[in-house]
Amino acid sequence: MINLLSDTATKPTPEMLTAMMQAEVGDDVFGEDPTVNKLEAYVADMFGHEAALFCPSGTMTNQLAIKVHTNALDEVICDHDSHIWHYESAGFAWHSGVRINPVPGSRGKLTADQVEAAIQPAYDWLARTRLVVLENTANRGGGSIYRIAEVDPIFKVCQDNKLSLHLDGARLMNALVATGESPSAWGKRFDSISLCLSKGLGAPVGSVLTGKADFIREARRFRKVMGGGMRQAGYLAAAGLYALHHQVDRLAEDHERAQRLGAVLAEQAYVKQVREIETNIVIFDVQDHLTAEEVLSAYRQNGLIASAFGKRTIRMVTYLGIGDAEIQKASAIIEKGIVV
Ligand SMILES: *Cc1c(COP(=O)(O)O)cnc(C)c1O
């Protein structure tokens, strides 16, 4: 079965497993796991931030950022396609007691004008705008990329209005590999960044949150409250360090393979439209007389799985486990298509 459901399907390579087995570990709840400390220092340094926190998931790093940046009854501005709005079980309401203003951007991205227009005036009967969250790459936006030049005017709006700015950088390294922009340039614009190690980077588990020292101190306390204080987590942190040292540049191969899948899809009569492919995510629409489920079921029978992203929309994702041989097989299955 060729699995194009998500880049979370990556499994550790033998080299990564060796690095994990050789990790020096300690009790991280006491701050005494040397490998976790090394990973946190490495990621903080990469973004030019003061401190970092290793967490079990990207949902937790995002939730911690919202928790520490806001007070109850505050409002968070984000794109209406963002992960914190769609895929975190309304955790913002549960953990932080805040409201979200999901602004309809384009391909998962907002403009500075949209952010500025979404800021609430200071009346007692309105929620207090406190935080802006951007996502790069934007998952539901089709793996679309924000450039620094697009972030700068948003950064200025946040500065002018005393709003914190958080980046859901689950796939930030995909964006940086594609643009050549530096992590430190991104660190400079954001109060906090969440980076997933368990997506295209290929680690089995984990995300890192970065920011100022006092921000991370607070996040560390709430991580414990949420049940995310782990003990000998260095075995997992070692996988993250290995990924950051050895598996960043190869993301470019995933992007190239996504382009190849897109080219094959674009030639099929049953495909209405392949949306723009910027990184490792391919989103396409099937013809009006078909449904995504019908096409996916034909694929499945031939040995390919992908996900429905709407009634007539399908998503495919490339990652570490999908090499040239898998792309070739997937292409043949896509060409076989669907018998109606
Ligand atoms: C995957 C993802 C997350 C975090 O997900 P977890 O499964 O909790 O690690 C956050 N934001 C985006 C955009 C993601 O794709």
Structure, explained:
By secondary structure, the chain is an alpha/beta fold. It folds into two domains: 10-246, 3-Layer(aba) Sandwich (Aspartate Aminotransferase, domain 2), CATH 3.40.640.10; 250-336, Aspartate Aminotransferase, domain 1 (Alpha-Beta Complex). The chain has helices at residues 14-21, 34-47, 58-69, 83-86, 91-96, 112-118, 148-160, 172-179, 183-189, 213-225, 234-246, 251-266, 292-302, 324-336; strands at 2-3, 51-55, 74-79, 99-103, 128-135, 164-169, 192-196, 207-211, 271-274, 281-286, 304-305, 307-308, 313-317. Pyridoxal-5'-phosphate (PLP) is lined by residues 57-59, 62, 83, 135, 139, 168, 170, 196, 198-199, 207.
Main attributes of the structure:
14 helices, binds pyridoxal-5'-phosphate, Aspartate Aminotransferase, domain 1, four-stranded antiparallel beta sheet, 340 residues, 18% strand, seven-stranded mixed beta sheet, Aspartate Aminotransferase, domain 2
